[in-house]
Amino acid sequence: MKRTIAALILLAGAAGTAGWIAAAPDPRPADSLAAHQPDLDNGKRLYTASGCLSCHLPPKEDTAADRSLPSGGTALHTPAGTFYPPNITPDPETGIGGWTDIQFVNAVKLGISPDGQHFLPAFPYTSYTHMSDADVLDIKAYIDTLALVKAVNKTPDLPLGLPVETVMRRGLGLWKMAAFEPAPFKPDASKDEVWNKGAYLVTGPGHCAECHTPRNMFMAMDQSRWLAGGPHPEGIGSVPSLRSLKARGRYKDVNDLATALEFGETLGYDKMSSGGMAAVQTNMSKLPPEDRTAIATYLMSLD
Amino acid sequence: MNSRLATVSRTLALGLAAGSLFAAAAFAGPIEDRQEDMKKVGKAMGQLAAIAKKEAAFDAAVVKAAGDTIAESVKEFKNDFPEDSKDGPPETWAKAEIWSNMDDFNKKADDAVAAAMAMAAVTEEANFMPAMGALGGSCKACHENYRRPKQ
Fold this sequence. Notes:
Number of strands of chain B: 0
Structural class of chain A: mainly alpha
Helix content of chain A: 25-40%
Oligomer: heterodimer
Distance between the termini of chain A: 25 Å
Shape of chain A: globular
Order of helices and strands of chain B: HHHHHH
Strand content of chain B: under 5%
Number of strands of chain A: 4
Number of helices of chain B: 6
Strand content of chain A: under 5%
Order of helices and strands of chain A: HHHHEEHHHHHHEEHHH
Helix content of chain B: over 70%
């Protein structure tokens, strides 16, 4: 993701006037949402699968903060600058308490803020875009039940003194034109329900591909090398491939991988703890068992 | 005469073997040392994991040996992070954060030693899984912050 950000800053630098106009955010209108009755249990499940809290944590130095609430502010140091994931508790002033359903959907699925800025793709809307509106609205309904926290958001520190306003309003739009494809998840009719559920969880909410798929010259995920591993977003080391897990002897079978996702190092699966995977595995351990089985079914099927 | 000669040559051979072992130990750097210790931990964890996954029966003797090995190895391991061992060769997966948070790193290693000693003391099967959870958790707590991924 850090490379993504670096690339988009470069693209922003090279932007022409034509792109400038096209790069304006184009949110969906409110009437594009079907009527929806929120399901809070499903919202909690997908909030967990999406790892919302893992990034929107309060800073470690803030010892008084409740680390079970997504009040944001933990610095994300990247070669492209330092970013602070915002407060997404339902506080109306500093959080997202005042957001309407369509504002939330536009943010999560299109990376567009209510005041018409593009979000940095460190926020993985490039994956969340594959979620259904219903699931995204369930997450919103669940977040609305959380305790509100007053925590003012911090502006990112971009390198080379790049103007934050310009990057957020237009520069990112240029990158989106090159690298962002909003499209609903398409189930594979030749596969069963469990496989498709796993594919959806991995591709959409789980946003596994953000780190496990290598990127092309536009810093878009290279679909031809889907989940084939790549350089680590923090700049050092690599992220392992999730293909041919069985052939490479990583996991014996679906059950073995599902167990690894549930217990991680507690059962000696030591690949589940480094490079940011520990937080992911913690989230996986909180999912219903059938979700872990679905994820493992899908991943173990990749040649 | 022949047997005495055999004894002498056997002694010589033993001496040579011991000498080369010593030399190998003396030439290995801290990165090799800590990786060697981690391999011992991994092997012992494998034995415990097999019991946890019910692939092997609970055996108090195996549990004690594995717990002791992990405790000893992590104690050794702690000493193998001098300032000049941040980068290899050989390739190392230790993150630079270790050296900027040495107190926390050492504390997490001590936690792992304590959890391994508690594991070594388990004699009843009923106490095994909680000890496994604590021990695995201590591995995770350190790896999460201080080990970068490898391919």
